[in-house]
Specification:
With 162 residues, this protein is of the alpha+beta class. The chain has one domain (26-158): Hotdog Thioesterase (Thiol Ester Dehydrase, Chain A, Roll), CATH 3.10.129. Helices cover 20% and strands 38% of the residues. It contains four helices and seven strands. It has helices spanning 6-11, 30-34, 39-42, 81-98, and strands at residues 26-27, 50-56, 62-68, 103-112, 120-132, 135-144, 147-158. It has a seven-stranded antiparallel β-sheet, with helices on one face. Bound molecules: Palmitoyl-CoA (PKZ). Palmitoyl-CoA (PKZ) binds next to helix 4, strand 4 and strand 7. Palmitoyl-CoA binds at residues 34-35, 37-38, 89-90, 93-94, 97, 104-107, 133-135, 155, 157.
């Protein structure tokens, strides 16, 4: 009988992945801006769920380099739509914070364009496209090379008194 059951094998930690940014990107320290609360997506940087690093480019746009691990599985071998949505929620909301708006997300509209294979490193790029009164609109897409996996439109609402 084998000493390692399939279940034990599934619990082993996946090897390190390369989450380095593009040339000219500067690492972005999210906790120093918004505190330590973002554990759902960012909380286990060496775990088997999400591994994420944030960067800003020379125009101060926020980018995320993200690995979807085996614990994000939905359809066999591919990421759960909720996992993709969680990443878009955090990355696009954080983009508004990084642009100077203290917000929560009021509405998030995600289009899932292509199924995302597990254990793939992808990028989320974001743009704050408008800010009117308390409403800040952020657009983003999750992609790798020419493959676009999801696009998002995120209405953020500023928090009074912050
Ligand atoms: C205590 C917290 C500290 C946080 C400090 C650290 C945070 C660190 C964040 C890190 C980065 C983020 C990453 C994760 C982002 C999330 O996941 S946030 C969590 C998920 N989001 C939520 O739980 C939000 C729940 N909703 C709410 O709290 C409230 O509905 C809101 C959004 C604050 C708005 O409520 P409100 O302040 O009473 O404002 P309200 O008058 O209803 O709306 C203001 C305007 O926005 C419009 N609006 C509001 N909601 C919507 C909507 N869903 N659709 C369309 N329009 C809307 C209204 O129509 C209104 O428009 P006008 O009439 O002015 O034209």
């Amino acid at each position: 009988m084998s000493e390692t059951s399939p279940q034990q094998g599934a619990e082993s930690i996946c090897p390190p992945v390369d989450l380095s940014g593009d040339a000219g990107w500067v690492p972005f320290d999210a906790p120093s801006l918004v505190g330590e609360s973002l554990r759902f997506v960012s909380g286990e940087p060496d775990g088997n769920r999400f591994r994420v690093r944030y960067y800003r480019d020379s125009e101060q746009h926020l980018h995320a380099r993200i690995w979807f691990g085996p614990e994000t599985e939905g359809p066999p071998g591919h990421a759960h739509g909720g996992a993709v949505s969680a990443v878009m929620d955090e990355a696009l909301g954080l983009a508004a914070w990084a642009a100077g708006y203290p917000i929560v997300v009021g509405n998030l509209n995600i289009s899932f364009r292509t199924m995302l294979p597990l254990q793939k490193v992808v990028t989320v790029e974001s743009r704050v496209v408008s800010a009117q009164g308390r409403k800040v609109m952020v657009h983003g897409r999750l992609f790798c090379g020419d493959a676009v996996y999801a696009e998002g439109e995120c209405l953020c609402i500023t928090l009074p008194g912050r």
